[in-house]
Amino acid sequence: MATALKNDCFLREKGLVFNIERYAVHDGPGIRTIIFLSGCPLQCLWCANPEGQQLKQQLSFFPDKCTGCKECILICPHKAIEQKNNKIIMNWDKCNHCLKCVEVCSNEARKSVNKIMNSEQVLKEVMKDLPFYHRSNGGVTLSGGEPLMQCDFSANILKLCKKEGINTAIETSGYSDWGNFVEILKYTDFIFYDIKHMDTKEHKYGTGVGNEKILENLAKISILCKDIDIVVRIPLIPNFNDTEKNIYSTAKYVKTLKNISKIELLPYHKLGAMKYEYIGKPYLLKELDSPKIEVLNRFKNIIQSNDIKCEIL
Ligand code: SF4
Ligand code: SF4
Question: Residue 82 Cα, ligand 2 centroid: separation in angstroms?
């Protein structure tokens, strides 16, 4: 049976994890293990991890693996699956993600996108990579989704990692209550913090929420957390935030903050587009191309002209 989690009531020791990626090199110092946690308060149009947006267990369907045995049609209590022209089709509107069909599919054409884990299980996965952290000064990065959406679970994972002497980082949209940051940042060495747009109306158009809370939290972190290394990230999305005016005003804002080590530019890509099909969501940015290197370099120059270090990822 699918399980929905509530931020304030689920056990501190358990949470929903939708991926664990090993040997990552862009999300903190050294070689890192990235723990992707489900649930996000934003709905960015370009999201590369749409399967991580919901804080509940969720079905994914991979038609290429389906042999047409029809076991799933027989078991689905909501008639969300049918056969048309010899193909198995999902009616996503009818699916309530009960995951009964996953149990009968012997071809792995149906899977839960995430699973419930406790923090000890996550630590066990993390500890497998300990030799890599030691050799590279690496560690663990919590990502998502938005790790602060499962604040207690995230804090517990980070705390366990710190007990083992492992370097910790989080990637955050910044959209969370300040109390959640206070809890998480006790156990965090490194923070990647997104600024997606300096204009709150535009921010709301692209992500579903305004930017006030995000900018306010970043200002507080930059003043209060002197021991945490802060990197600001700008995902560069064509026709959304890729204007000189926006980059200039982001740089100007960052310049007013303390403890920001650099700005990283993350060019838009379509690597997550296929995932939308697997979870029955439309991908609205099919026509967009990645920004050209000349454009990226122009923005990098604007940022550097404000005496801020800048890297293009
Ligand atoms: S149970 Fe799996 S393999 Fe069989 S029809 Fe359904 S999706 Fe396809
Ligand atoms: S997860 Fe969706 S498709 Fe699968 S059995 Fe439940 S309602 Fe039907």
Answer: 11
